[in-house]
Amino acid sequence: MSFNPPFTDWHGKSVWLVGASSGIGLATAEALHAAGARVLVSARNADALARFVEAHPGSVAVPLDASDPVAVKTAAHTVQQAGPVDLVMYCAGYYKPQRADHFDLSEMLKHQQVNYVGVLYVLDAMLPHFLKRQAGHISIVSSVAGYRGLPKSLAYGPTKAALINLAETLYVDLKANGIGVSVINPGFVETPATAHNDFPMPGLVTTADAAREILAGWHKGAFEIHFPKRFTLWMKALRILPYAAYFAIASRLVKNP
User: Which DSSP helix (H) or strand (E) runs through 136?
Assistant: First the structure.
């Protein structure tokens, strides 16, 4: 089933990626450029963005800190001045494992600011642009960690759960306005963030694999893009379990990480 207008040809399309200096964002920017899109990349790391632009002629670097609302507004204005934006992808993210017995408020708030509030800043800056045109697409990178509460995900998981709910509500509200919405829920992807993990990561995929899955999802007009299926379908099964069964499984994960 197609939930959104499909992207079947990227030539002539303009895509703004927020959080594109490394990981999934960088790989997706590379894949979009190869497919013919005009790519605008944003992140805090201006040097990494400059290297991307040098290696990908026609792309544009717009440095910003996604946790700074003024910087996001300024960057969005710059992006819009360059012409209509067909898709904005929020892939900025922060992850550090945390358990409740080592509660760190500053880390909790940093996850919230980067992973969730940054999306709100981008929406505030870009929704008027899309609503005026009655066109465009908003794509948000969440995670299967947002499906249910998981060990060591005290700070990260709740922000991703919020993003899934946000994307669902945006879809309901914006469909009649011709604006597409998609949420990307990866499993384990080989990125600097997952390098923090000290436990086995089943179904681990590369960022290039992730980018291929994302573009395939946009091509189909999907709402949720999740991968790799051999792992994410198991996570979906956990999502529908009653609490008694789910907590029994989660407790075993805590004892045997």
Answer: none
